[in-house]
Amino acid sequence: MNTEDLIRSLSRDVPRVPRGALGRRLALGMVAGALVTALLVAGVLGIRPDLHSAMHGFSFWMKWTYTASLGIGSVMAVLRLARPNPQSLRALWWLSVPVLLLAGIGIGELASTPSRAWLAMWLGASWKVCPWLVLTLAMPIFIGLLWSFRRMAPTRLREAGAVAGLAAGAWAATIYCLHCPEVSAIFVLTWYSLGILLAAGIGALLGPKLMRW
Fold first, then answer.
1. Is-contact 190 140, C-beta < 8 A?
2. Do residues 159 and 92 lie in contact, with contact meaning Cβ atoms separated by under 8 Å?
3. Could you give the count of Cα atoms lying within 13 Å of 114 in the half-sphere of its Cβ?
4. CA atoms of 178 and 125, how far apart (whole Å)
5. How far apart are CA 155 and CA 76, in angstroms?
6. Contact 196, 139 (CB under 8 A)
7. Mean pLDDT, to the nearest integer, of 27-52?
8. Measured between alpha carbons, how far apart are the two ends of the chain, in Å?
9. CB 191 within 8 A of CB 131
10. Any idea where the domains of the chain sit in the sequence?
11. Alpha-carbon gap, residue 65 to 189, rounded angstroms
12. Which pTM was predicted?
């Protein structure tokens, strides 16, 4: 039996995978994790009392757009790496766009603020806890993504773990916006991004161990 006949023989009784099954499973894992994260924010941290008025201001949507943009881009990478023959990740260079845009907003803020107030703007009132809260809130979403990957066939496990952690961190930060009252772009760029990168780092470390199949 030649190789092609062997492949046909082995694949003869393999059921066809429904179209969109990959996306649905990833969505299920992420949504389940995000619901847990939302419950933690609402039940443990609490929703900011001025949320309704904050949603009419620029700062809230600045934060939300930044983190959601990173989350969408990361999910696209997760979809690529969940397959055994992933496509190139070079297209993800555009994830730098929201970072650069937020950096531009931050520079504008600094330029219009007296230098003596720069440190307070950068540190805010929660810089010591913000990255760790984002990392902690990312864990339920990361676990949901790990559950999704158990039925998939990734081959680049470290990269898959890193982008899963990046996606979990970005969406956790998006949900964390419901609690966080910080308004400075330079704060978000530094401390939100640090929490997201910590989640990506944890994913890169755990990916080779937890995503094997």
1. no
2. no
3. 2
4. 16
5. 16
6. no
7. 96
8. 28
9. yes
10. 58-210
11. 12
12. 0.88
Closest among 71, 63, 69 to 178, alpha carbons compared: 63
CB-CB contact of 141 with 35 (8 Å): no
Q: Are 59 and 183 in contact (CB under 8 A)?
A: yes
User: With helix as H, strand as E and coil as C, how does the chain read?
Assistant: CCHHHHHHHHHCCCCCCCCCHHHHHHHHHHHHHHHHHHHHHHHHHCCCCCHHHHCCCHHHHHHHHHHHHHHHHHHHHHHHHCCCCCCCCHHHHHHHHHHHHHHHHHHHHHHCCCHHHHHHHHHCCCCCCHHHHHHHHHHHHHHHHHHHHCCCCCCCHHHHHHHHHHHHHHHHHHHHCCCCCCCCHHHHHHHHHHHHHHHHHHHHHHHHHHCCC
Location of structure tokens 């393999």: 14
Token readout for 66 is 């930044």
CA dihedral (35, 37, 39, 41) in degrees, to 10, reads -140
Which is higher by pLDDT, 130 or 207?
Answer: 130
Work out the angle between the directed axes of helices 96-111 and 58-81 (0-180°, nearest 10). 160
Q: Tens of pLDDT along 67-106?
A: 999 999 999 888 888 877 766 777 678 889 999 999 999 9
Locate 105 and state its tokens: 């907003």
Tokens linked to 108: 């504008």
The Cα–Cα gap between 213 and 210 comes to 9
